[in-house]
Amino acid sequence: MKFSFTTSIDKLPNTIIIPIWKSKNTKSVLRQITKTYQAPASVSKLTWSADEKDILTVYAGDRTLHLVGMGQEPSPRTATKSVRNCVHKNKKKFTSTIGLDWQFAKAKKQTELLGAAVNGIVLGRYDNNLYKTNKDPKKDFMSASAKVVILAEKADATTKQMVREGNMLAAAQLRIFDLVNKPANKKIPSTLTALAKRNGKASGYKVKVYSGKEVVKKGLHALHAVGQASPNPSALIIMEYKPKKKAKTKIALIGKGVTFDTGGVSLKPSSNMHLMKSDMGGAAAVLGAMDVIAKMNLNVHVIGVVASAENNIGSTAIKPGDIIDSYSGKTIEVLNTDAEGRLVLADGLAYVNKNYKPDIMIDLATLTGSVVRALGKTTAGLFTKNKDLSAKLYQAGEQTGERLWPMPMWDEYLDEMKSDIADIKNLGTSSNAGAITAAKFLEVFTNEHPNWAHLDIAGKTLTDNEFGNQANATAFGVHLLYHFVKNL
User: Fold this and answer.
1) Strand, helix or coil at 474?
2) Which residues pair with 98 in a beta bridge?
3) In sequence order, what are the residues at sequence separation of 6 or more whose Cβ sits closer than 8 angstroms to the Cβ of residue 222?
4) Sign for the pseudo-dihedral over CA of 179, 183, 189, 191
5) 2: how many CB neighbours lie within 10 A of its CB?
6) Secondary structure class of 216 (helix, strand, coil)
7) Per-residue pLDDT tens digits for 294-316
8) Is 153 in contact with 105 (CB distance < 8 Å)?
9) Using an 8 Å Cβ cutoff, are 238 and 207 in contact?
10) Active-site hit among 182, 342, 440, 460
11) Three-state DSSP class for 149?
């Protein structure tokens, strides 16, 4: 998809999106649009709220204007969400080239918000019809040759860079949409490996993989244990991006990549088990973020790690009560085989910490239902003892709309994870504070790293949205991680 700029309304195509923030001046803006586009005078007298996602379609001669309300909060979240909604509803009516008139969307950080609107345009074209046999042909605005002409007050290097960034992020998010939406029979650990290698080759970073027997040889025993009942070998995928200039900071991003989670012998209820295809949402976020970080040439040394397995049932599956080893050397008592994500992450954290010695470690995982019960589906849980790191991650969440909320990490919670016969157990003594005790389990495998944070994104990876009748992928974490690294 191509984007270009113009300074003349005459050079905009006949279909135009006009984003507008809600304010006391909305009536005045309608009058300006009426005058600028010679729309019917009645338009200037309309009572239109410009609330988030409101769309007012105006016909001005041979032009169709889609006025998009973006609410009162000038934020990237509302810009992306509102423009995405407009494009999704109208994409099959659009011609191959549309316009984006940005001159009426006046707000602070206007250039950053333009990038978010561009992100929404690209995401709005998504269709979750991966395996349908009667797909509509991709023509007009759905085709690869689709274009957007942007009318903005200025088109300097910064503005063009933000448009490029919004487009790049959307392209990565679209790939993650498809990846997370794939069912388990179309997505196994080697699928994640293949994507990492393709992205690495296209974006210019190194990829190293330990799979199958190599996982055991490397001492990644917890990762192996989770996937040992699956015919599809587990894998540890290591991606390393080094900028051209020497970077001051080295950061590790670690994602849980359980491509399907039956719960193992501690079998999950069947009602929503099909949604466990998304249990690799943390890995997906890392894969997407690595791709954009490298393409945008950020000056930070980044190691992306995906610990991937398929948690199946079978005669070789781990059982409740089993004692397993881990890469760190610590032994784990497995009380519940459905608490498997923390096992694969334990090896991922220990491996990257020992072999790469990062300045910062951040892991992401669809780890617990407990965090959804605590925070709902509006935000993800943020767990760290480092107040500075917590503040920076929280800020990145507010900046991108991928919000985080800090949770307690007091050591009293670790008491629930003590085992009588092993170094630690994988489930708390009580059914309370499950998201926190899971984070405390992971903390044990960071070797007391001072700059580590855990993000429990269980409520954010799949949500009900405009892309279908069922829960769909969100690519949560791609924006968040990218902007966190960029801010460094």
Assistant:
1) coil
2) 148
3) 324, 325, 326, 327, 332, 343, 344, 346, 347
4) negative
5) 11
6) helix
7) 999 999 999 999 999 999 999 99
8) no
9) yes
10) 342
11) strand
Q: What is the mean pLDDT of residues 119-138?
A: 92
Walk me through the domains of the chain, giving residue ranges and CATH numbers: 2-171 (3.40.220.10), 187-487 (3.40.630.10)
Per-residue model confidence as pLDDT tens digits over 239-269: 999 999 999 999 999 999 999 999 999 999 9
Q: 417-438 pLDDT, tens per residue?
A: 999 999 999 999 898 999 999 9
Alpha-carbon span 32 to 36, nearest angstrom:
6
CB atoms within 10 A of CB 5: 18
| pLDDT averaged over every residue in the chain | 96
- Please report the pLDDT score of residue 467 as a whole number: 87
Can you list the pairs that 26-29 forms with residues at least 24 positions away whose Cβ atoms lie under 8 Å? 26/50, 29/104
Q: What is the pLDDT of residues 77-101, one digit of tens each?
A: 999 999 999 999 999 999 999 999 9
Q: Which residues contact 2 (CB under 8 A, 6 or more apart)?
A: 145, 146, 147, 148
Q: How confident is the model at residue 19 (pLDDT cuts 50, 70, 90)?
A: very high
Burial class (CB in 10 A: 0-12, 13-18, 19+), 137: exposed
Query: Is the pLDDT at 64 greater than 90, yes or no?
Result: yes
Say yes or no to pLDDT of 180 above 90.
yes
User: What are the tokens at 179?
Assistant: 């990846």
CA distance 416 to 429: 5
Element (H, E) at 198: helix 189-203
| Cα 463 from Cα 378, distance rounded (Å) | 10
268 is catalytic: yes
**Residue 139 falls in the annotated catalytic set:** no
Residue among 442, 368, 378 at smallest CA distance from 409: 442
State the residue for tokens 């996982």.
215
Instruction: List b or e across 462-476, with b for residues whose CB sees 16 or more CB atoms inside 10 angstroms.
Output: beebebeeebbbbbb
pLDDT on residue 190 = 98
d(CA 401, CA 322) in angstroms, rounded, equals 41
How many CB atoms neighbour CB 207 within 10 A?
Answer: 18
How far lies 409's CA from each of 372, 391, 424, in Å? 17, 15, 17
Which of 31, 89, 197, 268 does the annotation list as catalytic?
Answer: 268
Residue 468: both structure tokens together: 């279908």
